[in-house]
Amino acid sequence: MTTQFIGKENFTIHTQTVSESCPSNIALIKYWGKYEHQIPANPSISYTLNHCKTNTTMEFLADEPFSVQTFLSGNEEVKFAEKIEKYFKNIEQYLPWILKGKYIIRTENTFPHSSGIASSASGFGAIAKCLMALDEAFTGKTSEEESLRKASFLARLGSGSACRSLYNGLIVWGATEEVQGSSDLFAVPYPDTEIHEVFKSFNDWVLLIHEGQKSVSSTVGHSLMKTNPYAERRFQEARENFVPMKEILKSGDMESFIKLVEHEALTLHAMMMMSDPAFILMKTGTLEVINKIWDFRRDTGLPLFFTLDAGANVHLLFPADASEESIKTFIEAELLQHTQKNGVVKDVMRF
Ligand code: PMV
């Protein structure tokens, strides 16, 4: 199934340092539930962010015994190093040189640490890009397209949603008849000609409702879908949602876009509540913000809406157009008070 990504047996390794940067992403149709080898239970589509990034420098010391040392913002992170070691061992067939040296990995996020913004997507995206830069140095040049595709494939094996962070714009991961070339193994950009202008310049302001560790990790969340009695229906719905999404993206139908994106976010959290054991990642502030957004939209008709990740933070979505100043004023005056420390990360998607 994955033979196209098997690594070249001929390579010449040497000590080398590479640096790469990768943004985070936010899903509009969500991936929640997976099968063995990080195969998603349903296709997903996301926006890649612009400012929320991970910058990673990877030092490879050739011919030293295999080991991994990681530093996050200068502080050594032993747990993360163990995770990366396991990951490298897992992907050896795709990069046959990977266990033949020592790694020192320095990484930093441009967004606040423990803000709850998914750092695994940007983190594994940046690591996969570094690995492909080393692969090119050891095995020879590959085309940019092939290299990005393999980086997406490798990032997926680290953290599923990371595979979507390799590309800018609207990105699809998971095979669906609605998107040509889509695959369970790697992400592909959604065709540019099929996207209305209004969706090409969008704000995502992330309200940091609750900073710190989540009570349930996404790994546990995904696995709880295996016994969730609503899982099959959910996977089916996500697949079906690609049909209206495609039409919406083409036509620029903002009202339907808002309805679909908010429904996807609430469904994700509904699945958590219907798991056994049940869990809730939203906080009081999350619900207060959602209600205020709905009131604001009813009162003004302006296109401010939300999506949620697997956490309490609210991603405020609104087009970068004539309405954005009124929306920004409302957010500052009414929504910021529900964050923990007036925390907001102002990002924008442009492509
Ligand atoms: O990639 P993971 O295993 O961290 O899962 C992420 C799942 C969601 O962020 C909740 C949804 C998605 O599609 O990104």
Automatic annotation (TrEMBL):
Keyword field contains ATP-binding: yes
SUPFAM superfamilies per UniProt: GHMP Kinase, C-terminal domain, Ribosomal protein S5 domain 2-like
Keyword Transcription included in the entry's annotation: no
Residue ranges occupied by any Mvd1 C-terminal domain in the UniProt entry: 206-332
GO biological process: isoprenoid biosynthetic process
Domain Diphosphomevalonate decarboxylase-like N-terminal, first and last residues per copy: 23-179
A Gene Ontology molecular function term of the record: ATP binding
Keywords: ATP-binding, Lipid biosynthesis, Lipid metabolism, Lyase, Nucleotide-binding
PANTHER family, sorted: DIPHOSPHOMEVALONATE DECARBOXYLASE (PTHR10977:SF3)
Protein name according to UniProt: Diphosphomevalonate decarboxylase
